[in-house]
Specification:
With about 180 residues, the chain is α/β, with parallel strands linked by helices. The chain has six helices and five strands; from the N terminus they run βαβαβααβαβα. α1 packs parallel to α2, α1 packs across α6 and α4 runs parallel beside α5. The mean pLDDT is about 95.
């Protein structure tokens, strides 16, 4: 349970297809797409459009942040050589969660969350630690979760396939781009 209404950071449409429906069982939820890490801009636009489609299909409101990859590049520049799940990811989580918490505060939401923990590539314990700290900083409740539990990731894959959603093959940042398979 969480204080309602809740502003939930969305990283991508496939993950939102499962988690937003799950969250809405416990209260009023607005999605928030703000991902300055996504590269290139065409990929960002594709993911945003798919998120808009999921919001329309599932019937939840969607707020959108400004695409600002320069902020992400400045924040992570010194950590460019870090592996996936390394310190660069922690900085990226903190950047996106801070932007979500500030938006929640500015819009009058008492609580915020992120759906990123549904991904097997994301560290739920780190996301929750950062979220708790930012919740205290901004006077908000942070919904701690590990949405990959109880087969959450697999459920998101199945739901997004049924919905015909674009499923990306990398996190979004330039360092996570995987070469095409031969």
């Amino acid at each position: 349970m969480f204080k309602s209404p809740l502003l939930a950071h969305i990283c991508c449409a496939p993950d939102a297809s499962y988690v937003l429906d799950l969250l809405r069982k416990d209260g009023e939820v607005t999605g928030y797409f703000d991902n300055p890490n996504i590269w290139p801009a065409a990929e960002y636009t594709l993911r945003l459009e798919e998120t808009r489609r999921v919001a329309s299909l599932l019937g939840f409101p969607l707020a959108e942040g400004k695409y600002d990859p320069e902020t992400w590049l400045r924040a992570t520049r010194a950590l460019a050589g870090e592996p996936e799940k390394g310190r660069r990811c922690d900085v990226c989580y903190a950047l996106r969660l801070d932007r979500t918490a500030r938006r929640a505060r500015d819009l009058g939401f008492p609580a915020f969350a992120t759906i990123m923990s549904v991904s097997p590539w994301k560290k739920a314990e780190t996301l929750n630690r950062i979220g708790r700290r930012l919740g205290m900083k901004y006077g908000l409740e942070f919904l701690e979760a590990d949405f990959k539990k109880k087969n959450g990731f697999q459920k998101s894959v199945e739901i997004s396939r049924r919905m015909g959603l674009y499923r990306q093959n990398y996190c979004g940042c330039p360092a996570s781009v995987r070469p095409p398979r031969a």
